[in-house]
Write a structure and sequence with these properties.
The protein is an all-alpha fold and 98 residues long. The chain has 6 helices and no strands.
């Protein structure tokens, strides 16, 4: 089974209009890390996969296994999703419940 995650990450970032820097800041990694993921030199860990899937409103399976061209979700990135994602991770990162 061929993983599609590198191509999917690149396509989703481009469709959403994010630069490497902007996406890296949203999920708290470096620009170089995003670039390595998109080139297939390395893969995001499970937590970062969950962040990316949540941001783009797709499942983990779609992120990793399904070619993005097959994903029929033209509005995978909406303002509501960005607000939800930002609030969720702000709460999780600043929570006293570790």
């Amino acid at each position: 089974m061929k993983l599609c995650i590198a191509d999917n990450l690149n396509l989703m970032r481009q469709k959403s209009g994010y630069s490497l820097e902007a996406l890296a800041e949203i999920i708290s990694v470096s620009r170089q890390t995003i670039a390595k993921w998109e080139m297939g030199d390395s893969y995001p860990d499970l937590m970062n996969c969950m962040k990316l899937a949540s941001l783009y409103k797709i499942s983990l399976d779609e992120l990793v296994n399904k070619p993005m061209r097959e994903i029929q979700n033209s509005d995978f990135l909406s303002l509501d999703n960005i607000i939800y994602f930002t609030c969720y991770f702000f709460i999780m990162n600043n929570s006293i419940f570790y």
